[in-house]
Amino acid sequence: MTTPKKLFIKTYGCQMNVYDSERMVEALGGEGYVETKSADDADMILLNTCHIREKAAEKVYSELGRFKDLKAENPNLKIGVAGCVAQAEGEEIMRRQPLVDLVVGPQSYHRLPAMEKAVQQGAKALDTDFPEDDKFDTLTKRAKTKRGPTAFLTVQEGCDKFCAFCVVPYTRGAEVSRPAAQVLKEAQELVDAGVREITLLGQNVNAYHGHEKGLAGLIWALDKIDGLARIRFTTSHPNDMDDALIEAHGTCTKLMPYLHLPVQSGSDAILKAMNRKHTAESYIRLIERIREARPDLLLSGDFIVGFPGETDQDFEDTMNLIREVNYGQAYSFKYSTRPGTPAAERAQVAEALKTERLANLQALLSTQQRAVQETMVGREVRVLFEKTGRQEGQLIGKSEYLHAVYADAPASLIGQVVPVRIIANSPNSLAGQCIQ
Ligand code: SAH
Ligand code: SF4
Ligand code: F3S
C-alpha cells in the first residue's frame, strides 16, 4: 500500500467556504490524500480564501509568504489557492507569489484531481472558469465516514443582486440552484453518517429555485427525512422572503426559530445607494410578519458602517432601526473598498469616523445580544449536543436559537436533542442543566 499524501487546508470567509473545503478534501481523497491538521507535514497546502473585505484578501498573501520555509525544506510540497481570491485575482496570485502551484475558483473544484496530477508533473495549474459542466454532477457522493451532529449543505450559489459594495456576484457568478433531488440525496447521506442538523447554505439561499415551491418546498421535503432533527438556512435577502417561507417558520417544527436577515443600513438614502432595492420600513414590516408567524424567532443581521455618502443622520437611522428590531445576534463591518464594485469609485467616509460609528453600533448590538441571552435564563430550551466541553463531564451544543449552551451531561448524549434549563448567561454562551 502506498502511504497517503497529506493535505492541509485552511478556510477563510463564510460557511460556504467551510462546505467547499470539505468537498475539496473529499475530491482529493480520491487521489490518495488524507487531511492533516498541520501545514508542517503536508504534501499539499490549500488556502480556501475570501475576498469580501480588503483585510481578508490581503491575509492570503501574508499567509502564503509564511510557507516559503516549508517549501525550501520540502521541494515536493504543492501550494494551492482556492476560493474567492482565486476567482477574483487568478493568475495575478502566481505573479505576486511564485510559490503557488495551483489556483482554482469555486466553480471548478471538481477539476481538482486533474489539476493535482498536472502540478505533480511540475506544471502550474489555473482554473477560474465558470464551467458549463456542473461540479455537483461530478462531486456526487459524500464520504461515508461517521460525522458530527451538524453539517452545512450548499443548495444555492452565486448572486444576481449586485449590491454596490459587494464582490460576491463577481467571485461566485450568477445565481444557480441545485436540483432538490440532488440536495435530498446528499441530505440523506449526511443523516446516514450521523448528522442531526443541516444548515442549508447559499449566498442568497432564499432565492433557491431548485424545488418548484422554492426554499420552503425544499425545507418541507427535508422535514420528511427520518433522523434529521433540525433545519436551518443562511444567508437570506429580505427581497426573497416569500409567503411560504415565512409561514414555514410557524408551521415546520424542524425549522429552527433563528433567522439571519441582513439589512446593512437603516437609511433609505444609503439603502438606495447600496442598490439593496428595499427600504428600512419594508424591512421592519417584513420582520413583523415573520415574528407573527414565529413570535420567539431570534433575529440576526449584518451591518455596514461608513458606506460612501453616509451622514451622521444616516448612521442614526441605522441605530434607530436596530433599536426597533432588537437583534439577538449580529455581524457588523466598516465599509471596505472593493476593486471593480460601483461604490469603490465614490467619495469615501474618513476612516476615523468609520471606527467611531462601528464602536457605537457594536456597543448597541452587544447590549441587545446580552439582553436577549438574559431572557433565556430560567427558560427551558432544547439543545443538540455536539461535543465535549472544556470541563470534565461537560457537553456543549446549540439551542434552537443557536445559542451555545454548556451543561453537565454524559458523552452518550452527543448527537441527541435534550431539554435543558438555562441557569446562567455569560458573554458568548449560556450555562444549563439537563432536565431529566
Ligand atoms: N449574501 C449575503 C451576504 C454576503 S457577504 C447578503 O446579501 O446579505 C456577508 C456580509 O459582508 C454582508 O452582509 C455585508 O454586511 C458584508 N460586506 C460585504 N461586502 C462588504 C464590503 N465591501 N465592506 C464591508 N462589509 C461588506
Ligand atoms: Fe453581496 Fe448583495 Fe449579493 Fe449579498 S445580496 S451576496 S451583499 S451582492
Ligand atoms: Fe468571502 Fe467568498 Fe464567502 S468573498 S464571504 S468566501 S462568498
From TrEMBL:
<dbReference type="InterPro" id="IPR005839">
    <property type="entry name" value="Methylthiotransferase"/>
</dbReference>
<dbReference type="InterPro" id="IPR058240">
    <property type="entry name" value="rSAM_sf"/>
</dbReference>
<dbReference type="GO" id="GO:0005829">
    <property type="term" value="C:cytosol"/>
</dbReference>
<dbReference type="GO" id="GO:0051539">
    <property type="term" value="F:4 iron, 4 sulfur cluster binding"/>
</dbReference>
<keyword id="KW-0479">Metal-binding</keyword>
<dbReference type="GO" id="GO:0035597">
    <property type="term" value="F:tRNA-2-methylthio-N(6)-dimethylallyladenosine(37) synthase activity"/>
</dbReference>
<dbReference type="InterPro" id="IPR013848">
    <property type="entry name" value="Methylthiotransferase_N"/>
</dbReference>
<feature type="binding site">
    <location>
        <position position="159"/>
    </location>
    <ligand>
        <name>[4Fe-4S] cluster 2</name>
    </ligand>
</feature>
<keyword id="KW-0004">4Fe-4S</keyword>
<feature type="binding site">
    <location>
        <position position="84"/>
    </location>
    <ligand>
        <name>[4Fe-4S] cluster 1</name>
    </ligand>
</feature>
<keyword id="KW-0949">S-adenosyl-L-methionine</keyword>
<dbReference type="InterPro" id="IPR006638">
    <property type="entry name" value="Elp3/MiaA/NifB-like_rSAM"/>
</dbReference>
<feature type="domain" description="TRAM">
    <location>
        <begin position="374"/>
        <end position="436"/>
    </location>
</feature>
<dbReference type="InterPro" id="IPR007197">
    <property type="entry name" value="rSAM"/>
</dbReference>
<feature type="binding site">
    <location>
        <position position="163"/>
    </location>
    <ligand>
        <name>[4Fe-4S] cluster 2</name>
    </ligand>
</feature>
<dbReference type="GO" id="GO:0046872">
    <property type="term" value="F:metal ion binding"/>
</dbReference>
<dbReference type="InterPro" id="IPR023404">
    <property type="entry name" value="rSAM_horseshoe"/>
</dbReference>
<keyword id="KW-0411">Iron-sulfur</keyword>
<feature type="domain" description="Radical SAM core">
    <location>
        <begin position="145"/>
        <end position="371"/>
    </location>
</feature>
<dbReference type="InterPro" id="IPR038135">
    <property type="entry name" value="Methylthiotransferase_N_sf"/>
</dbReference>
<dbReference type="Pfam" id="PF00919">
    <property type="entry name" value="UPF0004"/>
</dbReference>
<keyword id="KW-0819">tRNA processing</keyword>
<dbReference type="InterPro" id="IPR002792">
    <property type="entry name" value="TRAM_dom"/>
</dbReference>
<feature type="domain" description="MTTase N-terminal">
    <location>
        <begin position="5"/>
        <end position="121"/>
    </location>
</feature>
<dbReference type="InterPro" id="IPR006463">
    <property type="entry name" value="MiaB_methiolase"/>
</dbReference>
<comment type="subunit">
    <text>Monomer.</text>
</comment>
<feature type="binding site">
    <location>
        <position position="50"/>
    </location>
    <ligand>
        <name>[4Fe-4S] cluster 1</name>
    </ligand>
</feature>
<keyword id="KW-0408">Iron</keyword>
<feature type="binding site">
    <location>
        <position position="14"/>
    </location>
    <ligand>
        <name>[4Fe-4S] cluster 1</name>
    </ligand>
</feature>
<comment type="similarity">
    <text>Belongs to the methylthiotransferase family. MiaB subfamily.</text>
</comment>
<dbReference type="Pfam" id="PF01938">
    <property type="entry name" value="TRAM"/>
</dbReference>
<feature type="binding site">
    <location>
        <position position="166"/>
    </location>
    <ligand>
        <name>[4Fe-4S] cluster 2</name>
    </ligand>
</feature>
<dbReference type="Pfam" id="PF04055">
    <property type="entry name" value="Radical_SAM"/>
</dbReference>
<dbReference type="InterPro" id="IPR020612">
    <property type="entry name" value="Methylthiotransferase_CS"/>
</dbReference>
<keyword id="KW-0963">Cytoplasm</keyword>
<comment type="function">
    <text>Catalyzes the methylthiolation of N6-(dimethylallyl)adenosine (i(6)A), leading to the formation of 2-methylthio-N6-(dimethylallyl)adenosine (ms(2)i(6)A) at position 37 in tRNAs that read codons beginning with uridine.</text>
</comment>
<keyword id="KW-0808">Transferase</keyword>
<protein>
    <recommendedName>
        <fullName>tRNA-2-methylthio-N(6)-dimethylallyladenosine synthase</fullName>
        <ecNumber>2.8.4.3</ecNumber>
    </recommendedName>
</protein>
